Amino acid sequence: MTPVTAFADQHLALFGLGGSGLATAEALLAGGAQVTAWDDSETSREAARTRGIAVADLRDADWSGFSALVLAPGVPLTHPEPHWTATLAQAAGLPVIGDIELFCRERAKVAPDAPLIAITGTNGKSTTTALIAHLCRVAGWDTQMGGNIGVPVLALDPPANNRVHVLELSSFQIDLAPSLHASVGILLNLTPDHIDRHGTMENYAAIKERLVASADRAVVGVDDPHSAAIAARVKASGITLTTISVAGRPADVTLDGTRLMRNHDTLADLAGVATLRGRHNAQNAAVAIVAVQAVASMQPASQPIDVPRALHGFGGLPHRMEQVGQRGHVLFVNDSKATNADAAEQSLKSFDPVFWIVGGVAKEGGLAPLAPFFSRVAKAYLIGTSSAAFAAELDGHVEVEDCGTLDVAVAAAARDAAGSDAAEPVVLLAPACASYDQFKNFEQRGTRFRELVEALPASLAGQAEEKSRDLTR
How would you class 156 by CB atoms within 10 Å of its CB: exposed for 0-12, middle for 13-18, buried for 19 or more? Predict the structure, then answer.
């Protein structure tokens, strides 16, 4: 835990008692603050009471006695309209902040030079965060990883000069962290996402920009126009900047085949690194290496990192182009985290031919951005509420089978892939959709896919033969 002593002897209001909210309340109490918390869920309120957290309806509170409102990142701050707690706080002239801001204030108080690597972007944040933490651990550093991935930031060990914090940050978290100041700030990419929470793409991009604009050093991917414009502004501000391109654009680090190049020197060769397959993962790797090398340069006693060994030792993350099984010559890949078309594009680029399981709750734009990759798709297996719309989009381009549910889709895709003449056909779950029509979240969807694959017979030959007999009847 990181006790938040920066608010000792102050009284804070807190809304949202999920995992990060509970960790935040406990960190504030451990640091000597007083907390009054509330949540719409009675179950969450009771969980807080059992931990000794004071719970009271903030609608009835005297807001003049609070120093700030600590808001859970999932609660609307501005769009589609401010949450009622934010409105009450603003009326009382109080700052509305989140757990990342509390961490930043504590770091500024107790260890302002403690290494902090902060990562944001629309896609690839979690893989990049995990890879950076892996490289830091290979280097022998005390490494704490959390934020928007895994562990809430205030449940991590406190900032210290000999400890590296690697934090994945969402736009919601950045929006609630006005004093965020990373040692290395990373922006991977920007495509439309969470517009319902930020109003416009411009607002969304501006919030992401804060992370790199306030960092000591910035690393920015420049393969989309919004990020390229941000990189130009960061450079003009005088911040030390490293740009990354894996799409052939001018940048400090570029991709040549499987090699990452910097100033005509090979930064790393990704050939044979199965967990970093695809151009998007080349960007993730480039960013991770540059960031860790930057932190190493701030620590004179650190040992050189064996980058090739570290990359080959990276196990990847669940639900992100995760290879979950091989049945005969068929490879099964779980990319359930691909909840929008831009994320699904990366896995479609990485495999050919693809027996594609797609669908759920469609995002804005549907499958239109993926049209250039339809030629890689041997057949699509539609699931979820998007099925009718996706069938119309794919009509005339890709053969489709309306499966409805994931179990039906896996069986059908396995059957067809087993009959393919390709050397390594791939059954790919890359839904390009949110999951909440049939699953609680993308993790549950990906776990179910893995279970269904594990239940398949070791050989799919029988299924292929049955399909062949059906076709000849």
Answer: buried
**Is 467 a residue whose pLDDT tops 70?**
no
Q: Are 317 and 127 in contact (CB under 8 A)?
A: yes
Cβ neighbour number for residue 46 with a 10 Å cutoff? 12
Task: Give the rounded distance of the alpha carbon of 419 from its chain centre.
Answer: 35
Task: Give the pLDDT mean for 436-447.
Answer: 96
Q: Specify burial of residue 329 (Cβ count, 10 A radius: 0-12, 13-18, 19+).
A: middle
On whether the CB atoms of residues 182 and 211 are closer than 8 A, the answer is yes
Q: Cβ(456)–Cβ(465) under 8 Å? A: no
140: left (phi over 0), alpha (psi -120 to 50) or beta: left
Model confidence pLDDT, tens digit, residues 378-417 = 999 999 999 999 999 999 999 999 999 999 999 999 999 9
pLDDT tens-place string over residues 229-253: 999 999 999 999 999 999 999 999 9
Short-list 153, 149, 158, CA closest to 98: 153
pTM of the model: 0.82
Q: Which residues of 248-278 are buried (b: 16+ CB within 10 A; e: fewer)?
A: eeebbbbbeeeebbbeeeebbebeebebbbb
Determine the average pLDDT of the residues in 302-329. 88
CA 69 to chain CA centroid, Å, is 26
162-215 per-position pLDDT tens digit: 999 999 999 999 999 999 999 999 999 998 767 777 779 999 999 999 999 999
- Could you identify the residue written with the tokens 């099925």? 387
Question: Residue type at 384?
Answer: G
pLDDT for 465 beyond 50: no
- 90, 94, 101, 205, 366 from 9: Cα distances, Å: 22, 17, 18, 36, 51
Cα dihedral angle (176, 235, 187, 22), rounded to 10 degrees? Answer: -20
The tokens of 208 are what?
């992401």
Q: What would the two tokens of residue 386 be?
A: 């998007």
Residues paired with residue 71 on neighbouring β-strands, in sequence order: 15
Please give the average per-residue pLDDT across 326-334, as a whole number.
95
Q: Which residues are CB-neighbours of 141 under 8 A, at least 6 positions away?
A: 162, 163, 164, 299, 302
Distance between CA 33 and CA 102 in Å, rounded?
12
- Residues 6 or more apart in contact with residue 465 via CB below 8 angstroms: none
Contact 4, 27 (CB under 8 A): yes
Spatial CA neighbour of 13 closest among 3, 1, 25: 25
Kindly give the residue spans of alpha helices, DSSP state H, lying in 167-278.
171-175, 195-198, 201-213, 225-236
CA proximity to 258, closest of 273, 275, 248, 242:
273
